[in-house]
Amino acid sequence: QLQLVESGGGLVQPGGSLRLSCTASGVSLENFFIGWFRQAPGKEREGVSCISHGSSKEYYAESVKGRFTISRDNAKNTVYLQMTSLTPEDTAVYFCYAYIGLDGYWGQGTQVTVSS
Fold first, then answer.
1. Phi and psi of 22, rounded to 5°?
2. 42 three-class SS
3. Which long-range contacts (CB under 8 A, 24 or more apart) does 25-31 make?
4. Predicted confidence (pLDDT) per residue in 28-73, tens digit
5. CB-CB contact of 94 with 36 (8 Å)
């Protein structure tokens, strides 16, 4: 059974940076498509970025394009989300999601708070 654990969240000032990690156990992520989602209080969960299993394709929501970068290290069974130029609008719980075929798995989320 695949288990995902996000880490790297925290409190950061506007304009700051954070790197989130999504580490898997139980199964190799190598063949999974990985996405990062976020959910702010009172809002629906939204897609932020995703990366194909071969890292050949990446997708970014318009709101984070140019500021966030997704990457993966299959040797570490980890996917990263580098976030820069953070604004209060980026405050949310960030989740990673791994899917292959009809099977999808969520992590428990990590809180990112952007505030001065």
1. -130, 105
2. coil
3. 25/77, 26/1, 26/2, 27/1, 27/2, 28/74, 28/77, 29/2, 29/72, 29/74, 29/77, 29/78, 29/79, 29/98, 30/74, 31/100
4. 999 999 999 999 999 999 999 999 987 779 999 999 999 999 999 9
5. yes
